[in-house]
């Protein structure tokens, strides 16, 4: 179908996008939104007022599948759409993995598009409106440069900037390489030019995205060039740089140096460990040991003593013993994370770990998980005490969910910061601004205080 026909069908229709999963999925949603905008569609605030409902999915955990099925089925009870006809579309990792098989669990989906088919979303949706049939596209490789698609940012002050897609690591528990494909880096200059343009548009903070940013450039240059990229992006004038995800085995000394020496790179690093047991790490195919990881943490803190480290940890990987878990617990106590995402292992069909039988009772795994959570809560609380009676610059994102008179912002260490809206200002004047907050309360998951000085 040609672009003019697509526009004729879609112009004026409303759409709603719900996103599950990681930051890459969030950026994919922004690209789908930008594409629909370019064909004259209008964003709706909820699915009840949308002609087009899009679910961008993640398949890392089993709960994501169940949640998607519930969300799709709930569309059956929505009131008629503004145009009288509604198209339900499912994209992202579950769509790539299951394709037409997704219809086994949800029978009201009109469009299914995989991770490599985002550029064709508008065409697929238009065809569904035109003929009422189901349209499915789950290519194994991108045949269009999705990175060049228009995109609709959720905020004017922050932007997701993908630097690569795919993953070559094949951790035994992870489905990502099978649904996102192999590592493919964007051209160096293209990324720098994009960030330069974003800075001109008023973007203050960016997050560089990739399944493993530390291996950026290996496919283009024969060796990783993430350190060079960090320095070049830092030279664009952007004020804050975050990045994710970062695989420990590929975090090179030159990258640590670039982080320490580039002022715009924020003092925060997400460094997923997954387990503190060398035996389990080998079973996971992580390709580093407990000792390797702890040595890496030491090198990072030698260069950036106050850095906020966060991580991912899986409890209950098949075959994990009490001794293995105790190794994870002691590693968490040693590293003293500022934040951690803790998960109970979720079997993913198609991954090697899914073939491993594990007799460990669920109650035992849950008890271990709860012990780990207590350790993380303790280390996070202790880390935040270091901000007490200091002034923290917070980039304001909005207001607290509990109190719309209280600001919600993020510190350079990605901590949540609260403060009452200062007298004489409205929230609309402060979103996207940086305010200095004199911290007088430091809790486990947030800091709070009062605004000092003028917003900037």
Spatial order of strands in the largest sheet: 2-1-3-4-5-6
Mean pLDDT: 93
Termini separation: 48 Å
Corresponding CATH superfamily of the largest domain? tm_1862 like domain
Determine the fraction of residues in helical runs and give it as a percent range.
25-40%
The CATH class of the largest domain, by name, is Alpha Beta
Query: In angstroms, what is the radius of gyration?
Result: 23 Å
What is the count of structural domains? 3
- Main sheet overview: 6 strands, parallel
- Individual helix count: 15
Total beta strands: 19
Beta percentage is: 15-25%
* CATH fold annotation of the largest domain: pyruvate-formate lyase- activating enzyme
Q: Identify low-pLDDT runs.
A: none
Any idea what the shape is?
A: globular
CATH architecture of the largest domain: Alpha-Beta Horseshoe
Structural class: alpha/beta
Looking at this protein, list some descriptive labels.
single chain; 456 residues; alpha/beta; Rossmann fold; pyruvate-formate lyase- activating enzyme; OB fold (Dihydrolipoamide Acetyltransferase, E2P); 3 domains; 6-stranded parallel sheet; 5-stranded mixed β-barrel; 19 strands; 34% helix; 21% strand
Question: In words, what does this structure look like?
Answer:
Helix content is 34%, strand content 21%. It contains 15 helices and 19 strands. The chain is an alpha/beta fold and 456 residues long. A hairpin with a 5-residue loop joins strand 16 (406-410) and strand 17. Helix 1 crosses helix 5 (121-131), helix 9 (226-234) runs parallel beside helix 10 and helix 13 runs parallel beside helix 14 (362-385). It folds into three domains: 3-137, 3-Layer(aba) Sandwich (Rossmann fold), CATH 3.40.50; 148-385, tm_1862 like domain (pyruvate-formate lyase- activating enzyme, Alpha-Beta Horseshoe); 391-452, OB fold (Dihydrolipoamide Acetyltransferase, E2P), CATH 2.40.50.140. The chain has helices at residues 3-10, 23-38, 62-74, 93-98, 121-131, 176-180, 188-200, 218-221, 226-234, 253-261, 278-283, 290-303, 322-335, 362-385, 427-430; strands spanning 14-19, 42-43, 52-57, 87-92, 111-113, 135-137, 158-162, 164-165, 184-185, 205-209, 240-244, 268-270, 308-315, 339-344, 391-399, 406-410, 416-420, 434-442, 446-452. The protein has a six-stranded parallel sheet, sandwiched between helices. The protein has a five-stranded mixed β-barrel with strand order 15-16-17-19-18. A three-stranded parallel sheet has the order 7-10-11, sandwiched between helices.
């Amino acid at each position: 179908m040609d672009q003019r026909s697509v526009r004729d069908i879609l112009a004026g229709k409303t759409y709603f996008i719900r996103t599950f999963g990681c930051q890459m999925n969030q950026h994919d949603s922004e690209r789908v939104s930008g594409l629909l905008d370019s064909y004259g569609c209008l964003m709706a605030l909820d699915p009840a007022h949308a002609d087009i409902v899009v679910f961008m999915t993640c398949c890392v955990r089993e709960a994501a599948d169940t949640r998607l099925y519930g969300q799709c089925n709930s569309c059956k009870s929505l009131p008629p759409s503004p145009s009288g006809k509604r198209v339900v579309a499912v994209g992202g990792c579950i769509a790539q993995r299951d394709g037409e098989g997704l219809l086994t669990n949800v029978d009201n989906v009109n469009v299914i598009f995989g991770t490599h088919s985002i550029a064709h979303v508008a065409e697929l949706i238009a065809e569904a409106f035109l003929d009422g049939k189901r349209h499915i596209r789950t290519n194994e490789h991108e045949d269009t440069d999705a990175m060049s698609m228009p995109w609709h940012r959720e905020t004017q002050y922050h932007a997701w900037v993908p630097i690569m897609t795919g993953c070559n690591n094949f951790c035994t528990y992870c489905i990502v390489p099978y649904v996102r494909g192999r590592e493919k880096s964007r051209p160096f200059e293209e990324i720098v030019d994009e960030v330069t343009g974003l800075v001109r548009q008023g973007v203050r903070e960016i997050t560089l995205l990739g399944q493993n940013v530390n291996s950026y450039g290996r496919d283009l240059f024969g060796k990783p060039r993430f350190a060079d990229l960090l320095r070049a992006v830092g030279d664009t004038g952007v004020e804050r740089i975050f990045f994710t995800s970062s695989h420990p085995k590929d975090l090179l000394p030159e990258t640590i140096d670039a982080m320490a020496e580039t002022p715009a790179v924020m003092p925060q690093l997400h460094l997923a460990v997954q387990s503190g047991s060398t035996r389990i790490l080998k079973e996971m195919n992580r390709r580093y040991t407990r000792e390797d990881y702890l040595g890496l943490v030491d090198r990072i803190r030698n260069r950036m003593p106050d850095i906020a480290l966060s991580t991912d940890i899986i409890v209950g990987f098949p075959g994990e013993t009490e001794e293995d878990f105790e190794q994870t617990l002691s590693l968490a106590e040693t590293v003293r994370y500022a934040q951690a995402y803790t998960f109970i292992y979720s079997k993913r069909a198609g991954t090697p770990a899914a073939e491993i039988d594990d007799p460990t009772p669920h109650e035992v795994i849950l008890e271990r998980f709860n012990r780990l959570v207590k350790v993380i809560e303790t280390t996070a609380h202790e880390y935040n005490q270091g901000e007490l009676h200091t002034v923290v610059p917070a980039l304001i994102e909005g207001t607290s969910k509990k109190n719309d008179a209280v600001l919600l912002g993020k510190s350079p260490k990605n901590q949540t910061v609260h403060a009452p809206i200062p007298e004489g200002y409205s929230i609309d004047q402060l979103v996207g601004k940086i305010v200095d907050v004199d911290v007088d309360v430091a809790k486990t998951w947030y800091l709070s205080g009062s605004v000092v000085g003028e917003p900037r």
